[in-house]
Every structure is written in structure tokens, then in C-alpha cells.
Write a structure and sequence with these properties.
The chain is an alpha/beta fold. The protein contains 14 helices and 13 strands. The chain is 37% helix and 15% strand. It has a six-stranded mixed sheet with strand order 4-5-13-10-11-12, sandwiched between helices. The protein has a four-stranded parallel sheet with strand order 8-7-6-9, sandwiched between helices. Strands 2-1-3 form a three-stranded antiparallel sheet. Bound molecules: ligand F0G. The site of ligand F0G has 22 residues, from helix 3, helix 8 and helix 12.
Length: 410
């Protein structure tokens, strides 16, 4: 029996089931999101015995990834990122155990590579020749790289003038067709969903449930790196809301397999100017109110209509977690603090998780004894301009030793 028989797609609302051979992004009956589900026989702790012999990476967990042809995986060596214990930052905040999972170490510098290795492999299995996405920059950089690796044509739609320089450059060098949309990310996503439903182009935004399967390996790796423990709290920056849902799914699967009897609380952080999910949770609403004109310097999470909002709200509520906003000033402060105290340089969206940690520790929502993991989603070099704006030009001296001695003595 092939792996194809061991998983299927299910609607998160009405439960309708779909064959994994069908190209489908939303439930035909109710239009809601889909999720990859595995047959019970895979929810078995013995599966994990195979993992230990493989190196830490997305594909260490292949038994729980929805791929049929193991010989045709499109990979650049994604996953296996470090989980850094941050004692200086922790003691500064009065916390005993703070870790940062540095997803900037992925091949294109963000966690998106975990999703794209699975998503682009799936595109090939489905016989597709073209792939597309809307993006605030990282999804497009990642898709462009994996499409190049797989010799596929790649189309990316980005909000005009609102993508960090490093990310834009990545999509261009990998050979994607880069289209700037005079609108925001939400407009671009609407357009790309439209084109992918009418032409044979495979959609690789996080509405695609296969992509999220790759991203759930963040949870598996954390569990592995903590020696089979799960954290008390996991703090995740939220934009289109796929990643927090994927990580929660990963922990739930470890639980269903009997590999942990505990689950972490999921904490979602959004920027003040782009916080529809936090607003909904804090105000106790049953429905989401999208933000029409999202604004934040953390351009990666400058999103007003997160497509995965239902999955994300469920993850936060089911886990007993919370949602919080942080200001642009708090984000920039946290970005510098993490770099200076721990040597980890993250982009502003990732610094939102650290800013959230600081705020929640002050408000007492994180206990001193909690084991907390912050997900640093993308590398700081993606957005150098934001840093340059905050610093004066470095001092310049004549090329002689006496000038150097003089400057160092002042
Ligand atoms: N952090 C970074 C660095 C991101 O690039 C994103 C999303 C997020 C956090 C939020 O993740 O959307 O799953 O809630 N970036 C997308 C993109 C939207 O197009 O690159 P999410």
C-alpha cells in the first residue's frame, strides 16, 4: 500500500473528506479551509523510532508528511534550525528558560522553506508546471528558490513598495516572474487565488494545506531538541496565520501519537496596525473583523485579512493561549535587544515574538518558571534598511595606526 492511502484532506468546518489526488484549496461544499489528516495507524509512537537515525530536518519526519514519491523530493536542506537557550535575555526579563528557534537559518532565510519543500514536491506530484503565490516577501523568496530547483515556472505577486529589499532581490535572482500589485497583500492574495482557480497554476500560499504540513515540523524539532519535552508556551508572530496553526497541529500530532502527554499554550503576536486576530480574541467576538488598511514596519506581517484566521483562533483557544499586540517601537527595541544580548539578528516580524515575550512577561502572563520558545521566523539581513535608519553612519578614520589608537581611547 502506498502512502497515498494513509492521508486525506478534510474540511475544518463541515468535515467533508477529499482525495489527496484532487487539486483543491477550499471545501467544495462550504468553502472553508482544508487540513491534511492521517489515518489512525500512523498515530503510533513506533513511527518515531525511525526518526532518531536521521539528521534533524523537515524530512526526518517523512512518515507524517503527505508525499507519495520519496524519490522526487525537492529539497535545499531545510529545517534542522538551532534552538538557542537565551539566558541573558531570560534573566533580563526575570524568566528561567527562554529559547529562540532560529528559522533564519533555513536555505532562503525563513521558515517558509519548510512549507515549500513539501508544497513544491506536491506540485510536481500533481503534474503541475507553474506555481504561484502572493507574498509580503518571504513566501515569494522561498517559492522562487524551490521552483528554480524543480525547473518550474514561478509567478509571485507582491504589494508594491512594501517588500523588504533582501526578499525582493531573492525572488528576482531565483528567476521568478515578479509582479508588483498596487494594493496590499490581501489584494494580491485575492488575485492569485483567482488566477489559480481558473488556470493550471498551483497555488502555494498557506491556504494550501500541504505547505502547512512542512511547517508543522517546527513543533517536531522543538520536541526533539528539548529531549522529548514540549514547552509551556510557544510565541509566534502572526500574519496570514498559517504558521501558528501548523505548529499547533505538529504538537497535537505528537500528543495523538503518545509521544507527549502535555501540550504547549500557543501565543499569537500581531503588530498593532495589523491585528484582526488579536482584536477578535481580546474582544471575545465570534467573527473576525478584517483590518482594511493594515500598517506596520514589520512588512512581513502587514496583513489585514488573514486567510487562516479560523485555524489560528482555534489553535490559540484550544491550547489555552493568548493573543497580544506590539507596537512598531516595541518591535524595533526587541530586535536590537535580541541581537545585542544573544547574537541573533532577526527581521522585524520575528522580533514581534520577542516584543510579545517582553510585554507578556511584564504583564505576568508568562510565569518566571515557564519554558518558553519564541519562533524567530526570518533572518535580519532580509531587511537591512530598517536597521540602517536607526543608526548613525559608522565613524571613519585615516588609514594609520595612530588614528585607530586615538579613536579607541575616546
Ligand atoms: N514572520 C515572517 C518573517 C513572515 O514572513 C511571515 C509571513 C510571518 C511571520 C507570519 O506567518 O503568515 O503564517 O502567520 N509571511 C508571509 C509571506 C505572509 O508572504 O512571506 P503566517
Amino acid at each position: 500500500m502506498g502512502l497515498q492511502e494513509l492521508y486525506y484532506l478534510a474540511c475544518i468546518n463541515c468535515g467533508s473528506k477529499y482525495s489527496p489526488r484532487e487539486i483543491i484549496y477550499r471545501c467544495h461544499k462550504c468553502g472553508d479551509l482544508l487540513s491534511v489528516e492521517y489515518e489512525k495507524e500512523l498515530m503510533n509512537p513506533e513511527i518515531a523510532l525511525k526518526w532518531g537515525a536521521r539528521s534533524l530536518s523537515v524530512w526526518r519526519y517523512i512518515e507524517l508528511l503527505p508525499i507519495n514519491n520519496r524519490g522526487k523530493i525537492v529539497s535545499l536542506g531545510e529545517g534542522g534550525t538551532s534552538l538557542n537557550r537565551c539566558d541573558r535575555l531570560g534573566s533580563h526579563l526575570g524568566l528561567k528558560e527562554v529559547y529562540v528557534k532560529n528559522e533564519g537559518e533555513n536555505p532562503t532565510g525563513s521558515f517558509k522553506d519548510r512549507g515549500m519543500t513539501v508544497g513544491v514536491t506536491k506540485a510536481i506530484e500533481m503534474g503541475m508546471k507553474r506555481v504561484a503565490c502572493a507574498s509580503t516577501g518571504n513566501t515569494s523568496a522561498s517559492l522562487a528558490a524551490y521552483a528554480a530547483r524543480a525547473s518550474m515556472e514561478c509567478i509571485v505577486l507582491i504589494p508594491s513598495g512594501k517588500v523588504a529589499l533582501g526578499k525582493l532581490v531573492q525572488s528576482m535572482i531565483y528567476g521568478a516572474k515578479v509582479i508588483q500589485v498596487k494594493g496590499n497583500f490581501d489584494d494580491a492574495l485575492r488575485m492569485v487565488e483567482g488566477i489559480c482557480s481558473s488556470k493550471p497554476i498551483y497555488l502555494l500560499n498557506s491556504i494550501n494545506p500541504y505547505r502547512l504540513e512542512g511547517q508543522k515540523t517546527i513543533a517536531f524539532e522543538i520536541w526533539d531538541q528539548l529531549g522529548g519535552k514540549v514547552p509551556d508556551k510557544v510565541i509566534v508572530p502572526v500574519g496570514n496565520a498559517g504558521n501558528i496553526s501548523a505548529i499547533w497541529k505538529g504538537f497535537r500530532e505528537l500528543h495523538a501519537m503518545g509521544l507527549t502527554d502535555k501540550l504547549p499554550k500557543m501565543i499569537g503576536i500581531q503588530a498593532e496596525g495589523a491585528a484582526p486576530i488579536v482584536n477578535m480574541i481580546k474582544m471575545g467576538l465570534n467573527d473576525i473583523k478584517f483590518v482594511e488598511k493594515p500598517e506596520t514596519i514589520a512588512t512581513a506581517i502587514r496583513i489585514g485579512s488573514p486567510v487562516n484566521w479560523k485555524k489560528a483562533v482555534k489553535s490559540i483557544k484550544e491550547s489555552g493561549g493568548v493573543a497580544e499586540t506590539v507596537s512598531d517601537e516595541e518591535i524595533l527595541f526587541a530586535q536590537r535587544l535580541l541581537a545585542k544580548m544573544e547574537g541573533i539578528f532577526v527581521e522585524p516580524a520575528s522580533a514581534a515574538a520577542i516584543a510579545g515575550l517582553i510585554k507578556l512577561a511584564r504583564n505576568g502572563l508568562i510565569e518566571p518558571d515557564d519554558l518558553v520558545v519564541c519562533i524567530a521566523t526570518g533572518h535580519g539581513l532580509k531587511d537591512p534598511n530598517i536597521v540602517l535608519k536607526q543608526f548613525k553612519k559608522p565613524v571613519e578614520i585615516e588609514a594609520d595606526l595612530s588614528a585607530l589608537i586615538k579613536i579607541l581611547s575616546t
